[in-house]
Amino acid sequence: MNEQAAVTALAALAQQARLRVFRALVGAGPEGMTPGALAAMLDIPNSTLSFHLKELVHAGLVSTERDGRNLHYRPALENMNALLAYLTDHCCQGRQRALSGARRRTAC
């Protein structure tokens, strides 16, 4: 991940509703969720949810797939892990012992 992609992803998550949507999708795992299920779970109006999902897709944190008449939104776990790796890449000035193995772990 490069710096610009990291800034875009972090900017997308720096909004309460988008962070809630992203966390809900991560909780759902690779199966993802439909917009209707997300809206009901998070009590977010459909039009507002659509805007936030578009921003998360643009940031590369969420993918979408059409299944017949339904859309399924899924967390882009590989991009999330790339963001986490980017953020922790230079942790503790490269001293791995200070990380206690956390550097090798990924979010999923």
Describe this structure in words.
The protein has 108 residues and is mainly α. It has one domain: Winged helix-like DNA-binding domain superfamily/Winged helix DNA-binding domain (Arc Repressor Mutant, subunit A, Orthogonal Bundle), CATH 1.10.10. The protein is 53% helix and 11% strand. It has a two-stranded antiparallel ribbon. The longest helix is centred in the first third of the chain and has 13 residues.
Topology of helices and strands:
Blueprint: H1 3-13, H2 16-28, H3 35-42, H4 46-58, E1 62-67, E2 70-75, H5 77-88
Antiparallel strand pairs: 1-2
- How many independent structural domains? 1
SSE arrangement, N to C: HHHHEEH
Q: With helices defined by DSSP (H or I, 4 residues minimum), what is the helix count?
A: 5
CATH uppermost class = Mainly Alpha
CATH superfamily name? Winged helix-like DNA-binding domain superfamily/Winged helix DNA-binding domain
Q: In the CATH scheme, what's the topology name?
A: Arc Repressor Mutant, subunit A
Which percent range fits the helix content?
A: 40-55%
Q: Per the principal axes of the C-alpha atoms, what is the gross shape?
A: elongated
Mean pLDDT, as a whole number?
89
CATH architecture: Orthogonal Bundle
Keyphrases for this structure?
two-stranded antiparallel ribbon, mainly alpha, 5 helices, 108 residues
Give the structure's gist in a few sentences.
This protein is mainly alpha-helical and 108 residues long. Helix content is 53%, strand content 11%. It has one domain (3-104): Orthogonal Bundle (Arc Repressor Mutant, subunit A), CATH 1.10.10.10.
